[in-house]
Design brief:
It contains 10 helices and no strands. By secondary structure, the chain is mainly α. The chain has 2 domains: 82 residues; 93 residues, no CATH class.
Length: 212
């Protein structure tokens, strides 16, 4: 049985959830990282932003914060330039800590699709139900379509090898779609990879139903 890459399956599932990478949320001028930076600068307290960087990067952010406050005291224009410098530094270090490249600050008001706003709203309200409904609405069509295709091609398969291959291909697509979603939801990692390998070590090939 051919094994299809799980990341490709997950990308298909999640495509409808957001029109932009999650990075755009963190990099935006109205995103959580810059929002925390604005609050820190307004209070003169660096602590609100330190949670967004790794411990080994804390000294760098503290130094940048101190420089920003010092330069910002020179006047409005200097303050604007200094704050932009701090926003860029903080976001760049945050992204590096995630192992991701920094591509510059993004403007406020970006269309992030439905998923990220829904998740943020759930965090604020404490109600996760809308997120469950959103995820279900995206998963259900893909799951149903693959299931129906696998069932249909199996029932219509004949002794012709091409017909059998079509049935097997649809079966494999359905199987890996389900497994890919499950592994991602279960957390992935080494344990999930081991379970996946075991599950597919000796896959059962569906027997074509012969039509007379």
């Amino acid at each position: 049985m051919r094994k299809f890459p799980l990341p490709a399956l997950l990308a298909t599932i999640l495509m409808g959830l957001s029109t932009l990478p999650l990075a755009a949320h963190c990099d935006a001028l109205d995103g959580p990282v810059v929002t925390a930076a604005r609050q820190a600068l307004a209070k003169g307290d660096v602590n609100p932003v330190l949670a967004w960087v790794k411990g080994e990067d804390e000294a760098q952010i503290r130094a940048a914060f101190a420089r920003t406050l010092k330069v910002g005291a020179l006047g409005p224009e200097a303050k604007e330039l200094a704050e932009t410098y701090f926003f860029e530094t903080l976001v760049r270090v945050h992204r590096a800590g995630e192992g991701a490249p920094y591509t510059g600050l993004k403007p406020a008001g970006l269309d992030l699709g439905p998923a990220i706003p829904a998740a943020d709203k759930a965090m604020a309200s404490g109600d996760l139900k809308p997120v469950f409904e959103l995820m279900h609405g995206v998963l259900k069509p893909g799951l149903e379509a693959r299931f129906k295709e696998a069932r249909a091609t199996r029932s219509q398969a004949t002794s012709d090898p091409a017909s059998g291959r079509k049935a097997v291909a649809a079966y494999v697509d359905f199987l890996h779609y389900v497994d890919g979603v499950y592994q991602a939801a279960a957390g992935g990692g080494a344990h999930a990879e081991g379970a996946e390998a075991e599950a597919h070590a000796a896959p059962a090939k569906p027997e074509p139903h012969h039509q007379h």
